[in-house]
Amino acid sequence: MLVHFLEPHGKLYRRLLALEQLLGSIPPIVSAQQHPGPRESHHGIPPEEWPNVVRRVREHHESLRQVATDYGVSRETVRRLLRTSSMNRAG
After folding, report:
1. Under 8 Å CB-to-CB from 50, ≥6 apart: which residues?
2. What are phi and psi of 36, to 5 degrees?
3. What are phi and psi of 19, to 5 degrees?
4. What is the DSSP code (8-state) at residue 47?
5. Could you read off the pLDDT of 29-74 as tens digits, one per residue?
6. Does residue 73 contact residue 53 with C-beta atoms inside 8 Å?
7. Considering the entire predicted model, what is its pTM?
8. Distances (CA, A) of 29 to 26, 32, 33
9. Which parts of 50-91 are beta strand (E)?
10. How many Cα atoms occupy the beta-carbon half-sphere of 61 within 13 Å?
């Protein structure tokens, strides 16, 4: 099938050239791969708040669920943050 697109003698290639001349210059459909949304995620707990989260859970004994609700994240996100902070303290 691809042999029909070979330049300069392929049937479909010649048809495509004729169509392009008829319609004018056709911009490329996709110039670069693009992904929707911002490049940086604005979800999660901001790094400057991490010490407050650790303090609330470890010193004030607030539940992971309550802290997660206050920051609009999952309980698992808070748990991972606590695990990372304990690894940094130990290491």
Report:
1. 81, 85
2. -70, 155
3. -65, -40
4. G
5. 555 666 666 666 567 899 899 999 999 999 999 999 999 999 999 9
6. no
7. 0.53
8. 9, 9, 11
9. none
10. 0
